[in-house]
């Protein structure tokens, strides 16, 4: 392995590689979450991500959507530049451009490669709003400065929106180019940001379920490396306590943020729990869909036998009870924040918190216990 710089993230990368080589992190297993690495090395998320990028570039790990970093080799990939593309998968730089009607306002929306579905929905809603306002918007997936530079080339933008705890290199690139930017779904000191009120939304959801007589309420999903999903889980437990319900850790099953994760999380809860679950709060709508599908496999009717709630409405056709303003409302707040940033800039922290609302048809009054489980329930 060639010598690296003495930077903190390079030292962390070397340590991770050594643990892969000695079998501490075995091939085929998922690397411990970013948050655990942050705690173990006492560093910020950006430092961990830079370290993982070095490890990934050497071919020891691969980043897989919905799973995380997976260990794929105990040896460094020594491929030459000519066959590098065939030796390890590369991200496909994605740019979604709208038709440019004028030079009034050209916006850039930067999202991570593993962006939450609601983030992408909000980006597309903002694109439509920008067009109506006489401007245009490019949606770019990038996790680093290099990926961003490759995606945008020489295109000039009047302002940018950066979603979900971006890499410092991306923010530095925007600052160096004197492109005003707004943070979405995350906060930072001295920056203008627009966030969802996870606390208020989850409180309304849990209160609604309690008002309908539910006491055995489970929680499904949550990628703990995503601060907004972790916030929803913590808000869930606080809301239970506020409603006089003791928190039962057996009914909290975290992991993942997609439909399959929802299916798996509820299946595990249903099989192992000695408590008859009458309602499930999912971390988002995708997980809620998976919960509903799993419930049907177990012969449970939604919502008469199992109420299910989601978070962050994906569309009017989702059929999921959601606690959050629509993507359109969130996009509108983003557009207002961008205009304000272009006009005056932000020298202090300015946070706009989007309010919440409940809609949908997957919650019903608790009418009793779930049907008993038979042997067929365990043969999925």
Report on this model:
- With 380 residues, the protein is α/β, with parallel strands linked by helices.
- The protein folds into 3 domains: 8-77, Orthogonal Bundle (Arc Repressor Mutant, subunit A); 95-196 and 327-356, Rossmann fold; 198-323, 3-Layer(aba) Sandwich (Rossmann fold).
- It is built from 12 helices and 15 strands.
- It has helices at 8-21, 34-41, 45-57, 84-87, 117-132, 145-152, 168-176, 198-211, 227-242, 259-272, 285-297, 327-344, and strands at residues 61-64, 68-71, 95-97, 106-111, 136-141, 159-163, 181-184, 192-196, 217-220, 252-253, 279-282, 307-309, 322-323, 350-354, 358-359.
- It has a 7-stranded mixed beta sheet with strand order 3-5-4-6-7-8-14, with helices on both faces.
- The model is unreliable at 1-5, 79-89 and 369-380 (pLDDT under 50).
* Rough outline: globular
Major beta-sheet overview: 7 strands, mixed
Helix-strand category: alpha/beta
| Largest sheet: spatial strand order | 3-5-4-6-7-8-14
CATH first level of the largest domain = Alpha Beta
How widely separated are the two ends? 46 Å
Instruction: Compute the number of structural domains.
Output: 3
What is the CATH architecture assignment of the largest domain? 3-Layer(aba) Sandwich
